[in-house]
Amino acid sequence: MAAGAPRIFVSHLAGIAVFDPNGDMVGRVRDLVAMLRVSRRPPRLLGLVVELSTRRRIFLPMTRVTGIESGQVITTGVLNVRRFEQRPTERLVLGEMLDRRVRLVGSDEEVTVLDVSIQQLPARRDWEIDRVFVRRGKPGGTFRRAKGETLTVEWSAVDGFSLEEHGQGAENLLATFEQLRPADLANVLHHLSSKRRAEVASALTNERLADVLEELPEDDQIEILGKLKEERAADVLEEMDPDDAADLLGELPEDDKERLLALMQPSDAADVRRLMAYEDKTAGGLMTTEPIVLRPDATVADALARVRNPDLSPSLAAQVYVCRPPDETPTGKYLGTVHFQRLLRDPPYTLVSSMLDDALQPLAPDAALPVVAGFFATYDMVAAPVVDESGSLLGAVTVDDVLDHMLPEDWREQEFHLANGEVAHGAG
Fold first, then answer.
1. What DSSP state is assigned to residue 264?
2. Which intervals hold domain CBS (predicted)?
C-alpha cells in the first residue's frame, strides 16, 4: 500500500484472501498481530495470522505485504509455513481488542471497542493502529442489541490498552528501546543479565532479533540462539544476512549446526552452506549472497526501484551488478557494476548495460582479508563483487563486514562505552 493511503478498519480484513504475486491464493486472514507501546502511543502492527488451505495458521509479517486493496492481501510470495505461536508481547487485534471495554481519556466513561483502524506510515513500511471505533453505553445482553452513540477516536483518546510505564516485564523494556537502531539495542542487551537478555530476545520479532544478533558479540549470539526453541532459532537464522548466519552457525557444534540447517528453508540453508565452504577471512567467507542483480536489458528505472528497497543496507544499495541469467547467485556471466551515482545521472529508460564499470576487477572468492581491505581502500568502494573462475557472480563483500573482521574483538563494547554507556547501565 502506498504512503498516504487511506486507513483500513480491521473488521474488513477478517477472512479476506491472501494472494502471492502470481495471483495464486495462499490462505485467508484470521487475525492481526500488534505490539502495544507505552504512553498511549499507537501500537505497531507486526503482521497477519493467515490460515492456509491445510488449516494451519502461520504468521505473515507486514514487511512481506505489498498491498491491501480490493478485498485482498498481496504478499511477496515468501512465506514461512511454521505454525503461528503468539508471544507474550503480542496482542491479537480481532481476538483480544474488539469488544473490549475501555475508558475515554479525561473521564470515567466506559465504551465498547467495535473496531480499530490501521494505516501505513508515510515513507516507511511500518503500520500502526491509529484509531478506535467505539460505542457509548453499557454492552447488550445475550439476546439484546446494545444501543448508544458510536464515534471514532484517536488511539491516544482511550485508556485500557496501552502498557503501564512501570514494571520489569520485557514488554516495557522493548517499548522503551523500540526506536533504537539494532546496533544500539544489541549494546543494551549485551549489558543485561543473562536472564533478562533471554526474556527480551524471546519477546522480539524474528526480524528484529535477527538484526540485533548480527550486531552482538559471538558469545552473546551463541547464548541467545541456544535458549530459543530450535524451530524459532532456524526462523531467526533465515532472517539474518546469509554471511552473518554462516558465521554464527560455524561456531556451533557440528550436530547443532546440521540440525538447524535442516530446519531452515532449503533455499536459505543452501546459501548458508555455500558460504560456510569458504575460509572465514576470505572474500567468499565475508560476502553476502544477496546483492542487487540485474539483467543487461534492465533499465535505470528498474535499478532504482531495486535500490529503494528499505531492507537493503546502504552499502548494498550503492551499486547493482549486471549479469546474464540466472539472476540469483551464482549467476550467469558477470558483465560489470553500475554505481548508484551513475544511475542518478541518466534517464530512466537507459539500459544498465550501457553504463557498466567493467574496468573494475572483481574479487576472487579466495582473496584474503588484507587483499579485500586493500581493494576497498584503493578504489574508495563500499561494496565489491565476488566472481568465480567461470565468471559467475557469487555475491558481494560490503565494507562493514571487512571492518568487522579487522577491528579488535571487543570493539563493539569500546564503542558502546563512548556513545551509550549511560543507556546500558540504566537498562537492566
1. S
2. 287-354
SS3 399: helix
List, for residues 318-330, the tens digit of each pLDDT value: 999 999 999 999 9
Spatial neighbors of 104 by CB under 8 A, at least 6 apart, are 111, 134, 153, 157, 158, 159
Average pLDDT on 307-336 reads 92
Peptide bond into 291 cis (omega under 30): no
pLDDT digits (tens, 9 = 90+) for 342-355: 999 999 999 999 99
pLDDT digits (tens, 9 = 90+) for 182-197: 888 888 888 777 888 8
Cell matching residue 48: 497477519
Domain regions of the chain by residue span? 1-162, 170-277, 293-406
Answer positive or negative: Cα dihedral of 209, 214, 220, 226.
positive
Strand 25-35, strand 17-19: pairing:
antiparallel
The three grid cell numbers given for residue 295, joined into one nine-digit string: 539483467
pLDDT at 409 over 70: no
Confidence tier at 427 by pLDDT (50, 70, 90): very low
Taking CA 50 as the corner, what is the angle to CA 44 and CA 53, rounded to the nearest 5 degrees?
175
Residue 64's CB: how many other CB atoms inside 10 A?
A: 19
> Cβ–Cβ contacts within 10 Å for residue 224, how many?
23
CATH topology of domain 293-406: CBS-domain (3.10.580)
DSSP E strands, 277-339:
293-294, 319-323, 334-339
Q: What is the pLDDT of residue 21?
A: 87
Reported as a single tens digit per residue, the pLDDT across 19-42 is: 998 889 999 999 999 988 876 788
Q: Which CATH architecture has domain 170-277?
A: Alpha Horseshoe (1.25)
- Do residues 39 and 92 make contact, with C-beta atoms less than 8 angstroms apart? no
Judge if the upstream peptide bond of residue 326 is cis by omega within 30 degrees of 0: yes
- pLDDT score recorded for residue 426: 35
